[in-house]
Amino acid sequence: MVAVRLREVAYTLSPMHQNVMNGLWKDAAVKLRKRVADNWTSALTLVVPIASTYWYAEHFRQEEKLQHRT
């Protein structure tokens, strides 16, 4: 049997320095706007089919609810 030495590392945060993810959210709106502006055609090809499918399903459901009235 071969003995394997295991090492354990514990990472902790100092109570005085807890801004770990500060850079992730910094200027998030500007970054998002730039990405959408650079890739608006790709964004449209993603958003339009999803939005139209949702609109069609809602319209169909509403018509189905009102069908018994005629």
TrEMBL record:
Its main location: mitochondrion. InterPro entries: Cyt_b-c1_8-plants, Cyt_bc1_su8_sf. Keywords: Electron transport, Membrane, Mitochondrion, Mitochondrion inner membrane, Respiratory chain, Transmembrane, Transmembrane helix, Transport. SUPFAM superfamilies: Ubiquinone-binding protein QP-C of cytochrome bc1 complex (Ubiquinol-cytochrome c reductase). Gene3D superfamilies: Cytochrome b-c1 complex subunit 8. It is a single-pass membrane protein. It comes from the Eukaryota. It is found in: Mitochondrion inner membrane. PANTHER family: CYTOCHROME B-C1 COMPLEX SUBUNIT 8, OS06G0175900 PROTEIN. Belongs to the UQCRQ/QCR8 family. This is Cytochrome b-c1 complex subunit 8.
